[in-house]
Amino acid sequence: MDSVELIAARLPQRRTGSRYRTDEVDDLLDRCIAALQSWEQGRPATLRSDEIIRTELPTAGGAATGYDADAVDDLLDRVALQLRAKEPRAAEPLVAQPPGDTVGNRVFARVVGGVGVVAVAVGVVYLVFRLGG
């Protein structure tokens, strides 16, 4: 989805059921359009995908007409995916770790290493008694 597609998108409105206030949705969509246009022009956007995902839109109350909530959510999901694809990835770790070197593996190695020392000692004692006795 690009900014032109988002500008052309039309959301269904309803008077009952799950719906969002049109003014709030329109404001967020304007910000989404500006973010997509920024990326299309080679500039980073100020709106990030996680902000779209975390946004809680107010519902239209009473008999007020609002945008169909499912249609809005689907559209915003598409925009968030597009923005996420353009956003820089999280920084790489400062210290390179060997492949497979995870915290879980290091903890396991410490536990097994500690048990290994005890196991070797018990094995030696067992052999001494077995052979000597």
Question: How would you describe what is shown here?
Answer:
This protein is about 60% helix and about 5% strand. By secondary structure, it is mainly α. Strands 1-3-2 form a three-stranded antiparallel sheet. Helix 2 (about 20-40) packs parallel to helix 4. The longest helix has 30 residues, at about 105-130. The protein is elongated. The relative contact order is 0.14.
Specify the helix fraction band: 55-70%
Low-confidence stretches: 91-97
End-to-end distance:
80 Å
Q: How many separate helices?
A: 5
Largest sheet: 3 strands, antiparallel
Class from secondary-structure proportions: mainly alpha
Give the oligomer, counting copies of the same chain as homo and different chains as hetero: single chain
E-strand count: 3
Strand content bin:
5-15%
Average pLDDT? 81
Q: What is the alpha-carbon Rg in Å?
A: 29 Å
Secondary-structure element sequence?
HEEHHEHH
Question: Strands across the major sheet, in which order?
Answer: 1-3-2
Overall body shape: elongated
Highlighted features:
single chain, 3-stranded antiparallel β-sheet, elongated, mainly alpha, 133 residues, 3 strands, 5% strand
